[in-house]
Amino acid sequence: MSEHENKRLRLDVRFRNLHVLRTEEVTPQMRRVVLGGAELEGFDSPGSDDHVKLFFPNSSGALVLPTLTDEGPRYPEGEEPSPARDYTPRWWDLEKGELAIDFVLHDDGVAALWAARALPGDLIGVGGPRGSFAVADDYDGYVLIGDESALPAIARWIEALPEQAQVQAYIEIADEAERQDLPQYENVSIQWLERNGFSAATSDLLEQVLTDLEPPEGDVFYWIATESRRARMMRKFIEGHMGVPSAWIRSTGYWKAYPDEADGD
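-> structure tokens emitted (265 positions)
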């Protein structure tokens, strides 16, 4: 067993006002919104699972973003703050001045509704990312586990992980129509798991994979992102039943079926 140096990077946080350039239908339930604007200059997202905070128009249709102070972000007094949600950038191209965000259109939440209606010229605020997780590139293998909300990050992981390592990706989706064209490499295997009508909150397709998993040989890093309770329980299984060191697991609740519960880490 070797030592592997995973790092957390702190980044300078900026808040940007951007606008919609175009939208693309990735799958029936996944819509890509490509953003742009002069304030995109200098944007960077070093980590595959980075999050930016998206700020949507408030009930009056205004964008009200915070400013950074010594005590943290502060909103203008007397103004209704813009609702905000965390998303992983799918890709960005500073030469073209574009930033792509993929939205799952699965509910009537503020982000999904905005994305479903987004038109060229619509405004949105973008903050961060404020930090990145840099996984060591010297593991023998990497196992990626997630649902459709994790697809932007999984795609970025596949693009970024070292070619000498074996990579296994297990992706739970609503049905066959939600399969995406992901990067294809000889060292990467991808398995799609389709719920076909079952709830994403109570599905156990990813958990079944872990029960029968044959991971790559050697030291393996595990990355998990799905509903919060499921992500937490899978982390416990990998650490407790499979004997994987805690530092070799990164587990995050990307959404909550039970809002009062804590996320993973």
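Residues 200 and 227 are 8 Å apart (CA to CA).
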